[in-house]
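Shapes recur. One chain:

:::
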Amino acid sequence: MNESVRIAEQIKKMLPGVKHGTLRFWGVWFGRPHDDIHKLMDCDAKDDVLTMRFNQDEVLTVWSPKKLRLDASKFQVRDAKRVRWEWFSYGSLKIEENRFFYDFIKTRMRVVGNTNVNRLQPEMRPSRWLPAVEIL
């Protein structure tokens, strides 16, 4: 059993009691700190890729996740090769033209962030020393 399958099993055992909150990826907030509340609804894993689904049809995909810290007050994936957060523009139709993403890839030296957000450009300054995924 690989790490992502183990992590998916741990998360499923905690559902629906997994911490709700604002997401942060290698230190980059999704939105303003503590502004949005995201609730994890389901997860699964295949081929060392962890896929998590949230309450507003958001999807968080984590490649090669490592070191899960999980209880009622903490959700953290310490490390990963890649993290991708996808969501539909809130308040808009859930169609492909309204699907946005943050995509982070960890290299040997740093984490590179990318997005297709076409309005207020988010500040993408990830730090490889911070957790790959956190719910705060």
User: Anything to note?
Assistant: Residues 3-14 form the longest helix (12 residues). The first strand starts at residue 23 and ends at 25.
